[in-house]
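ok so i was messing around last nite and threw this chain in just to see what happens. nothing serious, just curious
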Amino acid sequence: MLPKDPNANRLCDATMIKAFAFIIASVVIVVLVGLVGKYHKNHVSVPPKPLTIDEVRLSIGEQLIANLKGENIRDNLHLITSDPHVAGTENNKRVGEKILNLWKKNGLEDVHFVDYNVLLSYPDYENPNHVSILDPGRRVLYQSNGTSPIIFPKEQGSPHAGVQWVAYSSPGEVEGDIVYCHYGREEDFERLKKLGIER
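result:
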């Protein structure tokens, strides 16, 4: 009989421990894989359905509406309309500067002015245009005073705010019969023409 080698027993014990640890680790891995598989089976991840163009537009619209604030609209309108600002005047330049500063304050970049020339007429503030209604004998039945009535003095109290004029029309006198032409669209004038009423 051969004498027992004490190192052989230790080697055998170490091998057994490694084998046992490997078996335990394998069982744990199998159980974990099974649990993950079961979880995914019960919680199937469905990829999101791509949005249609209409859905994207609706989403953008909803986000814009959610960010609108009535008080901001009121304040901005007051900022822009507190004084009359006919194109090409100093008041118009001041309103442009207010808008420029507001846009910059709200994070817009490269906000700047572009100068260009336009052909406009301007009102005669001291002698506003007026409309007269005459009878066949040319007697004045009604004459406007050339200004719009002030309904809200606090909002419409600036000098010359209510003066009436047509910016793209030269000054002068025009006479004619009063003709109702609905909205003044091209189709409205076509209808008048068909009815034998010339402009």
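not much to say yet. Residues 192 and 198 are 7 Å apart (CA to CA).
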